[in-house]
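Let us begin with a simple case.
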Amino acid sequence: MGDLIDPHQELAPSRRVDLDVWIRPLCALVVAGVAAYASYVHQRKFALQGGADEVSASLWPLSVDGLLLLATVGLLKPSGPCTRRARGAVWSAFLLGIGVSLAANIAAAPALEWKPVLVAGWPPVALLLSVELLVHRPVDQVDDEVGQAREEGGDPNGDDPLLARARMIDARHRRLHQRPVSAETLRQQLHVGAGRSRRLAALVTGSQSQGNDADELRDPVDG
């Protein structure tokens, strides 16, 4: 009788993960949509004040926020830009985009007081934060991918040559970029399919996290 497990306890984590997978992106999309609309209206007004015609004023905000969103996604991706020139280009685009977007939104405020400036300047900030929330995955989802990868790929400490190469690539990537390697980078360097690269990335990330936890537990004992 002591070995019986309440089925509700088994279903609770999966339901929580499923709700998070759906609700978090949905809320982020709503916030991003509202912020993008408000930013578009302010920048279109600014472009009209700057002498642009109706068509140019309608397209101008897309070039500003579009560049900003592209740079933001490039910075938030785990793989990220690899070369110094690529990183410089992405950071330049990000800083230029956020500067122009904030300036255009604030310039469209009816008065240079803190309330109108806050209302006009908030949309581009909210848009950036919502994009970041959309890009990052919840921890539980990553843990589920690790568990699935272990079930399908076997023992993560086994003799899988692809897994060994993936760990080497991950170690080099962490040294260069201070972050774990992405599934897309593993797919390109190992020449494997998308599903296999995701499982390898989950295994590498999971084993690295377990190693860090073990080191943290071992340090007080050694001291």
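The second case is a distinct protein. As before, the sequence precedes its structure tokens.
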Amino acid sequence: MFGKNLKKIRSVRNMSQQEFADLFDLKRATLGAYEEGRSNPKIDTAVKIANYFSIGLDELLTTELTVNRLLRFNEAITTESSYNSDSFDGIPCITEEAKQHFLNDFANNISNESLPTIKLPHVSGKDKMAFVIDDLTMSGGSNGFFPKDTIIGVTVPLTELATLAGELSVIVANNQIYFRKLTYNNNTVMLTANHPGVEPVLISTGDIKAAWRIVHVFRYTMHSGDNALEQRLQQMENTIASLRQKPW
């Protein structure tokens, strides 16, 4: 067992036989004999090796050492860790690439099992859906939303749409996904964007197929004063572009 352990130590430490032998004033041939089991070490040599690598002498001589042991890993933790990302709920996530797929499946009453998922500590996946922002519709103001930001909404029953009044919401209607601030009025909702160049959308409540109240926001980047100017310029460019498209 001693020879096998020496080989494993050399392998983990990426040491040649000569480097290992020099470390303990041994001849390379002597080390080779130890490793091949053709010779046994003097007790003082074994003690030096055990002390150098912080291994018990009994372990070195009688127990097959593992790579984890030599790397100082706690094998109980690596194989039976109480921390496991599987303990987090997977939240279905609608990315730009998955959006049309989601809408097609939604129209055909197909489940969301094929959607990508995200797992986050402290965020339960029950009745939630994540959405990755892919445009500048809600980019206005100091707390605007920008591409690659991720929002998470909790499902709101269609019978309780009135509770979304004044809330940031995601609505599925007319084969589109809208992320807007919602205003409720009898059988109609108005969806208002932050961006000044985006007109409000009026939708009949009967056309709404699903709704979520936004409860979590995860920013892709920090919005500093420097990039706020860039964002304002981008908003102006979008506004000008939208005005050019309007008939006069």
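The radius of gyration is 32 Å. Residues 73-83 have pLDDT under 50 and may be disordered.
Keep these points in mind for the review questions at the end of the chapter.
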